[in-house]
Design brief:
One of its GO terms (molecular function) is zinc ion binding. Keywords: Metal-binding, Zinc, Zinc-finger. The chain has 17 helices and twelve strands. With about 450 residues, the chain is mostly helical. The protein is globular.
Length: about 450
């Protein structure tokens, strides 16, 4: 495939032109919550985000909707969230009951949980007695209502439009949007060859690296955009396009690919950092194994959703570059659990009410253990945030406020920011010494030359 589509693959992976960057981010700005910002070349690191208005300290700088993202597979055990916007759904009772039910089956978000459980780990969560099966079922079916949970209304659970069990939503609008954007290609509801192939792909991703699922969503996103563009344009222009369909199809594919094209890319096996437990002498073998892992994943995905008109998307170079884009550009997807807010609310009640409430919920608190409020966690790509460069003395940070209950990236000013100033984040813990910071940034493929690093750099 690499040879047959070499020109098209090169075009897909070519850096976008300055004009296309300007036009694309202008359209993103017009469609989203990024007033006061602009994206342009900073003359040093390529794309950068600049303030086009002043921001006060702690003011919201950006609320960025993800282009594509996914909840970590292991996290789905702990958190029931909307598969499109990642808001918690159901009820406090549903969230607690579901976790305890899965825990009773020996499942938890920690991949080592089963091993610890089977070896009689001293982990507090494993040692404590779970509530009875009947009590857990009463939480799940709504027969048992915990005190004060009416203060924490969550959206009702909406099922996948085609009925698969993997995806749940907070509203019909989210279900429809996910179907149109990604899920209609990745749904496993039908007992057909495609669904069985998808299940094999998902199983492989869950066993190896669930970043493959995010990459699959990026490809599905592009294919569905391509089909929609083609349908609209061919309908508008009719038979005049038929004699040149190969070239026209690829122009549609390039246009559909544009949002993904904006992310900085390297092949995954070239940019992934070398794990600490891998000796440098074994680096070539490690990177070859990573490449082979991506190749296996791609073949499984091709069995499920291959589209000959979008064939260049299924080259290993493109697939590896998409994964590398997430490796280099992702901002962790994090949404706080409402269970934490609920237990804090109980803890802050007047003594008498608190005592009565604790009598009803203490069994569940003990069973959940110290990690009672695991947040939704995943990987996502955000179009504006991904353009923000690093600084060890940043002027902004990613920070979820109490009102931020879905998967948007939230960027807050750390200090006053003036018009024309570049918006920067710290990709690492900036409180460590210079040498440690530079070592951590080596995983991102660069050394920092921000004002602080220039000042602290040994002479």
């Amino acid at each position: 495939m690499e040879k047959d589509y070499s020109d098209q693959i090169a075009a897909l992976l070519a850096p976008p032109s300055a004009q296309s960057i300007q036009e694309y981010y202008k359209s993103v700005k017009e469609a989203g919550n990024c007033d006061g910002l602009c994206v342009r070349d900073n003359g040093k690191h390529g794309k950068a985000v600049f303030a086009s208005s002043d921001f006060k300290e702690e003011e919201l700088v950006l609320k960025d909707k993800m282009l594509v993202g996914a909840q970590h597979s292991s996290n789905k055990v702990d958190c029931l969230v909307c598969s499109y916007c990642f808001r918690f759904i159901g009820s406090i009772e549903t969230q607690i009951g579901r976790r305890l039910y899965l825990q009773s089956l020996g499942l938890c978000g920690d991949k080592d949980c089963d091993k610890e459980h089977n070896s009689h780990s001293t982990n507090d969560k494993m040692e404590c007695d779970l509530p009875s099966k009947e009590m857990i079922e009463s939480l799940l079916n709504g027969d048992l209502i915990l005190p004060f949970t009416d203060r924490f209304d969550l959206p009702e659970v909406v099922s996948c439009p085609a009925g698969c069990e993997e995806e749940k939503y907070c509203s019909q609008s989210c279900a429809d949007a996910d179907w149109e954007t990604y899920h209609s290609l990745l749904c496993t509801s039908s007992n057909n060859k495609q669904s069985l192939a998808l299940l094999k792909f998902i199983e492989h991703a869950n066993e190896t690296n669930d970043i493959f699922i995010v990459a699959a969503k990026a490809i599905a996103f592009t294919i569905l955009r391509y089909r929609k563009l083609k349908k609209t344009r061919v309908k508008d222009k009719g038979k005049g396009l038929l004699g040149q369909m190969d070239n026209v199809n690829f122009s549609f594919l390039l246009e559909a690919w544009e949002p993904i094209s904006m992310g900085f890319k390297q092949r995954w096996w070239e940019c992934v950092s070398l794990p600490e437990d891998v000796d440098p002498s074994e680096e070539l073998q490690f990177r070859t194994e990573i490449r082979d892992l991506a190749s296996t994943s791609l073949e499984l995905l091709k069995d499920a959703i291959f589209d000959v008109e979008c064939a260049p998307l299924f080259s290993l170079d493109v697939y590896g570059s998409i994964i590398g884009m997430f490796e280099l550009n992702n901002l962790d997807l994090v949404v706080a659990s409402p269970i934490e807010d609920y237990f804090i609310y109980i803890d802050e009640l007047p003594d008498k009410e608190k005592e009565e409430a604790l009598q009803a919920i203490q069994t569940f608190i003990d069973a959940l253990g110290d990690d009672y409020s695991v947040p939704c966690q995943g990987t996502a790509f955000f179009p504006i945030q991904s353009c923000m460069n690093h600084s060890c003395c940043p002027n902004a940070k990613a920070f979820k406020r109490d009102q931020d209950i879905d998967g948007h990236a939230i960027i807050i000013a750390l200090r006053p920011i003036s018009t024309g100033e570049e918006i920067t984040l710290s990709y690492i813990d900036e409180d460590v010494p210079y040498d440690e910071r530079q070592a951590m940034l080596a995983d991102y493929g660069f050394g920092c030359t921000c004002p602080r690093c220039l000042e602290e750099r040994p002479s």
